[in-house]
Amino acid sequence: MTKHKSRKDMVQPPSGFPELLPAEQIVYQKFLDTVREVYELFGFAQIQTPAVERVGILTAKGGDEKEIYTLSRLAAGPGEKSQTDMALHFDLTVPLARYVSQHKEKLTFPFRRFQIQSVWRGERAQADRYREFVQCDIDVIGRGSLDIMTDAEMPSVIYHIFRKLDIGPFVIRINNRRLLQGFFEHNGICASDIANALRIIDKLEKIGTDSVVSELSMQLGIKEDEARAMIDFLSTQRTTDETLDFLRSQQMGETFAEGVAELAAVVEGIRSFGVEDAYFCLDLTIARGLGYYTGTVYETQLVDFPQVGSICSGGRYDNLTSAFSDEKMPGVGISIGVTRLVLKLIKEGVLKPDRATPADVLVTMMDARYRMKYLRVAEQLRSAGVNTEVYLESKRLGNQLKYANRKSVPIVLIAGEDEIAKGVFQAKDMRTGKAIDVATKDIVATIQGMLK
Amino acid sequence: MTKHKSRKDMVQPPSGFPELLPAEQIVYQKFLDTVREVYELFGFAQIQTPAVERVGILTAKGGDEKEIYTLSRLAAGPGEKSQTDMALHFDLTVPLARYVSQHKEKLTFPFRRFQIQSVWRGERAQADRYREFVQCDIDVIGRGSLDIMTDAEMPSVIYHIFRKLDIGPFVIRINNRRLLQGFFEHNGICASDIANALRIIDKLEKIGTDSVVSELSMQLGIKEDEARAMIDFLSTQRTTDETLDFLRSQQMGETFAEGVAELAAVVEGIRSFGVEDAYFCLDLTIARGLGYYTGTVYETQLVDFPQVGSICSGGRYDNLTSAFSDEKMPGVGISIGVTRLVLKLIKEGVLKPDRATPADVLVTMMDARYRMKYLRVAEQLRSAGVNTEVYLESKRLGNQLKYANRKSVPIVLIAGEDEIAKGVFQAKDMRTGKAIDVATKDIVATIQGMLK
Question: Are A411 and A435 in contact (CB under 8 A)?
């Protein structure tokens, strides 16, 4: 008993590493397939990088050392070290930077790539924070320069993905870091404090105006009324065109004006890409915490589930490969953290895991004497692209139907002596309980009709 | 200069971790997609397990400690340990055993799952041996028992996959470990030596008869002429039916007879699954080195590339979860090591990476004044499922065509002032160089026709 219990404990996986049952996995995989489909629809090419990079690569781009998992071998041969110089990547941007630096002479620029892979972060496991999760990234990397239209294409890709996923209304919130930088400079915040100011402003939605005001005042010495005025300026709600008009009317120096011009160009571009106004807005409080963004920034929110936070974020950065090369390579990209998103959507009932198998048809083994007939009909269905399982165990029909039900196979085929004599199969729709006899030669067409 | 050089060294990835360029990645991904498609066609459900398991899980099933990569955090907070009790999985069978043990009350048995994931092995990097590679596994796990027909279904899945992949003729070689065990027992090899005898016999193809004879004699004390007679017995070439007749005529005890009966049932099953005789054979020298196989074993060879070795292997095991549970869970499975296989097939010219993008169409930006028209035609094409990229940089048309050529985009759309005035786009087939004018409303149909 003790032995049994300890074995049971043993099979508990480490916390923070989510694992799905087959029905959830199907929903999850369909989500990933849709993301990939849209990425390819826009002509992004897939790459996959190793799970590991050299430790020096990961720290060169400023990874948090506490979050980085390094690799050692459990045992080493004589004269070998068990420690390696490799660690698991914590995002897909650093590997992209390394990939582009390494292979740039073999790539075509602007380089449009997507990457769907696991990343690992050694954080304390907590609700909604995972140590392993999948990111779906696209980035476009220019050699020397990259047109601002690329910044407008990203929201268009997001728009297509989330429309196709059909998980409810969403809004892509857009801002520009140059605009914010100019604004802070104009408000007398010194250059060395601006990164910090951006980080604090970015928390507005989470901690509220009062806390942001107090942080700005405590950490950066900004007077409270000035801090409040700044937040008012940034958070006043207006339509997109009103915001642009308002911003254009402000005299806040060259950097600010550049940011406004970029933002206006992005808005014009987004509209020309066919994204409806209801699906995006300007939000001057969006700053993105990450240091490397330099221009346009994006966040995406599900209107009905704001508590999920941003489901797709990204932005423009001046130089992807600064750590590895002297050549300037500006880029713009977005990332969807699908693991957290899909698990949330399942929990909220937006995504409904309802089938534990891809099989559309289960051919039962009612009478082993007719096994050849069963296998042949399965072959016919598979040749027509219908996912078909044949039940191979010797069990009573009742058990076989229970099996189909538990996995939610929609259609079951049954043929005993009578059906075989008549040259038919009984096709039972497990969703409705209705059963009809179908001549063997008509099975493919009939099943395809029932599955529609 | 020195600085530049050291940076260049820095971006060399660790050896043994293969990485593909976009064109190779497309070929590789198509391969994976086909494998997944066939797995689903047979009603296997996907699962994915975390990259890591607890170290105790991995060693409980007998993993080689030198091959296991454990995880540590690069830095730890105050009072925290950097060492973890987690390690990267080295195959997908151990995670499956843990998954089934943990979730068995929520799964439906026989449990049919496929799993396509990376595995990691800390071996010395050498040609064709990778430290990270992708395996595509299917297994069927029974609770208590599992019909021998499942052993016959596996070759049928292999058959469909490699026919569909269209990489040349292949042969699935089938044997039975029980038969071999009975044969060795009958030949006076003691129980404790049989695993070793299987391991040695398994090397026959690699090291030849003489070396196997000498190993059997040196390591197990078998007389050389007896060893040679055993190898003769196992390696005599016969047709499938002749082999079965020959085996049935031998009196070598109960275990041997059980093995022969299983093998005969599997052959009958394979044929009823519709696998043509040219695609499988009995090969009594196939033993599979791994300790856990207990019945049917498989290997698959490309006829034109025998040097690639087995491209898909597997077998039957009596009890998947013995390390974690007292319940008997027999299973049968196969595994394709795709990374090594695809890289080999690319090297041999069987798979030809010819396109660096999924885009079928590039809409050029000939004149930015007509950007809206370009974006609109791209939208039309995407709505019809045609992967379409719009060139967004301000470059001369020549550069844009060069860009399309370098990535091997098959069709390019061009419209300047004249075309726009006439309401047409020029559709240029980059494969033939031919260009035609197409009315905007006919573009989708025309492009679809050109792509067929």
Answer: no
Kindly state the helix (H) or strand (E) to which residue A334 belongs, with its residue range: strand A331-337
> Tokens standing for A285?
């409080």
pLDDT-based confidence at residue B3 (cuts at 50, 70, 90): very low
Neighbours of A411 (CB within 10 A): 22
How far is CA B352 from its chain centroid? 18
Condensed to tens digits (0 to 9), the pLDDT of residues B67-114 reads: 999 999 998 877 788 888 999 999 999 999 999 999 999 999 999 999
For residues B104-123, one letter each, b for 16 or more C-beta atoms within 10 angstroms of the residue's C-beta and e for the rest, the string is beebbbbbbbbbbbbbbbbe
Confidence of residue B8 (pLDDT cuts 50, 70, 90): low
Second CATH level (architecture) for the domain A361-451? 3-Layer(aba) Sandwich (3.40)
First to last CA, chain B: 51
Of B230, B243, B331, B342, the closest CA to residue B283 belongs to: B243
Q: Where are the domains of chain B?
A: 14-347, 361-451
- From first CA to last CA, the distance across chain A in angstroms is 51
Contact A40 B387 (CB under 8 A): yes
Split at pLDDT 50, 70, 90, the class of A3 is: very low
Percentage of residues of chain B with pLDDT beyond 90 = 85
Distance from CA of A20 to the nearest CA of B (A): 7
CATH 3.40.50.2300 applies to domain A17-167+304-354: no
Mean pLDDT, residues A271-282 taken together = 96
Residues in chain B: 452
User: Distance from B228 to chain A by nearest Cα, in Å?
Assistant: 35
CA distance B236 to B187: 17
pLDDT value, residue B301: 96
Can you tell me the mean pLDDT for B248-253? 96
- Which of A1, A11, A47 to substitute to test the interface with B, most B CBs within 10 Å? A11
Could you count the other beta carbons within 10 Å of the beta carbon of residue B272? 17
Q: How far apart are CA B18 and CA B118, in angstroms?
A: 12
Chain A residues near residue B323 by CB distance under 8 angstroms: 7
The third-level CATH classification (topology) of the domain covering A169-302 is: BirA Bifunctional Protein; domain 2 (3.30.930)
Non-local (6+) Cβ contacts of A362 within 8 A are: A388, A389, A390, A391, A400, A403, A404, A409, A411, A412, A413, B43
Q: How many CA atoms lie within 13 A of B214 on its CB side?
A: 4
pLDDT tens digits for range A238-266: 999 999 999 999 999 999 999 999 999 99
CB contact under 8 A, A113 and B22: yes
Stretch (H or E) spanning A71? strand A69-73
Task: Please write the tens of the pLDDT for every residue from B344-353.
Answer: 999 999 999 9
Enter the tokens of residue B170.
């292949």
Kindly give the pairing relationship between strand B69-73 and strand A69-73: antiparallel
Domains B14-347 and B361-451 belong to one CATH topology: no
Omega before A306 within 30 of 0, i.e. cis:
no
Name which of B14, B145, B149 is nearest A86 (Cβ-Cβ). B14
- Stated pTM of the model: 0.95
**CB contacts, 8 Å: B51 with chain A:** 17, 51, 88, 118, 120, 132
According to CATH, what is the number of the domain B14-347? 3.30.930.10
Tokens of B422: 């006439």
Give the Cα separation of B56 and B87 in Å (integer): 9
Query: Is B29 in contact with A47 (Cβ distance < 8 A)?
Result: no
Residue A358: is the preceding peptide bond cis (ω within 30°)?
no
In angstroms, the separation between the Cα of residue B66 and the nearest Cα of chain A is 5
Q: Residue A79, SS3?
A: coil
- CB < 8 Å to A377, chain B: none
Asked if B387 lies within 8 A of A41 by C-beta distance, the reply is: yes
